[in-house]
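<instruction>
Derive structure tokens from the sequence
<entry> Chain with its tokenised backbone below:
===
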Amino acid sequence: MTNNIDLQKPLEAVKTLMTLQAATVSKSVELQKQSGEELASFFKSEVEKAKELKTPEDVVKFNVEANKNLFEILKAQGEAFTALATEASQNAMNEIQKMAK
């Protein structure tokens, strides 16, 4: 008794999902690179601003503003990574649903 097993569909499914994974990893690496560059630029700029501080009040004001700006940058970066994860998840689920049909 011989059964012909069609492996084409499962192999295509694996190939598709691996392609999605590779694309997501590439986007994630690029996003990490951009985030790192943005933070480096931020800190470089803040160092230059800090050189101009004269009074304790200037230091406090600078510190509060710098922290506020840093948290805004980190928030935006977190949102970008969340969007990437959401997109990757939706793409994977769409592909899995196509395969199930």
Summary: The mean pLDDT is 91. The radius of gyration is 24 Å.
